[in-house]
UniProtKB/TrEMBL annotation:
InterPro entries, sorted: RNase_HII, RNase_HII/HIII, RNase_HII/HIII_dom, RNaseH-like_sf, RNaseH_sf
GO molecular function per UniProt: manganese ion binding; RNA binding; RNA-DNA hybrid ribonuclease activity
EC numbers on record: 3.1.26.4
SUPFAM superfamilies associated with the record: Ribonuclease H-like
RNase H type-2 domain residues: 10-199
Gene behind this protein: rnhB
NCBIfam families xrefs: PRK00015.1-3
Pfam families named among the record's database cross-references: RNase_HII (PF01351)
Family according to the record: Belongs to the RNase HII family.
Cofactor(s) needed for function: Mn(2+); Mg(2+)
The protein, known as: Ribonuclease HII
Catalytic activity line of the entry: Endonucleolytic cleavage to 5'-phosphomonoester
Subcellular location: Cytoplasm
Length: 199
C-alpha cells in the first residue's frame, strides 16, 4: 500500500523522471499533486506495471490529480549539461508549470537540485513508496514512450517502438550497423566506434 503524503502541512508534489538510461531521445519528468483519498489498486513504480496498466493509470491520474505536469529535456541539452542535470531540469520545468503551486516536493532518488526556495525530500525507491511519485513515474514513462513510438516510423531499424531508446542488444546492433540518428545522445557510450548516420 503506497503512502499518500510524506507530510500534510504543505501542498506536496511527487516528482520522477523517465529515460535517464536511454541511448536516444529526451528525458521526461512529471510532477503530480494528489488529493486526499486518492487510490488505485494498480498504482506502483512504472517499472513494476505492465504497459496496458500504465496507460489505464495515466488516464486515472490525469482525471483525479489536483494538478499534474510533464516536461522534457532533449538529447542535445542532455549532451550539453549531462543526464543528471537534464533530469533535474525536466523536473523543475514540470514543477514550474503546475497550476496549483507545490510548497513541498518529494523526489524519487537520492539527489536533487533545489527548486527555488521550495523544501524537498529525496526518497530512494520513492516510486514504490509514495503514490504521488509513483503517479509521476507513470506519467513520465508513458509520455516518453509515446514520444519514442512517434519517432519509430522515421527510424524503424532501431526498434524504438519496443525498446523506447534503451540500450538493448537489438538497439546497439542497429547503431553498429546503421550509425547514429540525430536523436542519439552523443555523450553516452553508444558503440565501439561512434558512426554518424548518413541522412
Amino acid at each position: 500500500m503506497l503512502k499518500l503524503f510524506y507530510q500534510t502541512e504543505l501542498v506536496e508534489a511527487g516528482c520522477d523522471e523517465a529515460g535517464r538510461g536511454c541511448l536516444a531521445g529526451p528525458v521526461f519528468a512529471a510532477a503530480v499533486i494528489l488529493p486526499e483519498g486518492f487510490y488505485h489498486e494498480k498504482l506502483n513504480d512504472s517499472k513494476q506495471v505492465n504497459e496496458e496498466d500504465r496507460y489505464e493509470l495515466r488516464s486515472f491520474i490525469e482525471k483525479h490529480a489536483i494538478s499534474y505536469q510533464v516536461a522534457s529535456v532533449d538529447h542535445e541539452e542532455i549532451d550539453r549539461i549531462n543526464i543528471l542535470n537534464a533530469s533535474f531540469k525536466a523536473m523543475h520545468l514540470a514543477i514550474e508549470k503546475l497550476k496549483t503551486k507545490a510548497k513541498f516536493l518529494i523526489i524519487d532518488g537520492n539527489r536533487f537540485t533545489k527548486y527555488k526556495r521550495t523544501p524537498h525530500q529525496c526518497i530512494i525507491k520513492g516510486d514504490s513508496e509514495y503514490a504521488s511519485i509513483a503517479a509521476a513515474s507513470i506519467l513520465a514513462k508513458t509520455y516518453r514512450d509515446d514520444f519514442m513510438r512517434n519517432l519509430h516510423p522515421d527510424f524503424p531499424q532501431y526498434k524504438w517502438i519496443t525498446n523506447k531508446g534503451y540500450g538493448t542488444a537489438e538497439h546497439r546492433k542497429a547503431i553498429e550497423e546503421f550509425g547514429l540518428t540525430p536523436y542519439h545522445r552523443r555523450s553516452f557510450s553508444l558503440t565501439s566506434n561512434q558512426l554518424e548516420l548518413d541522412m
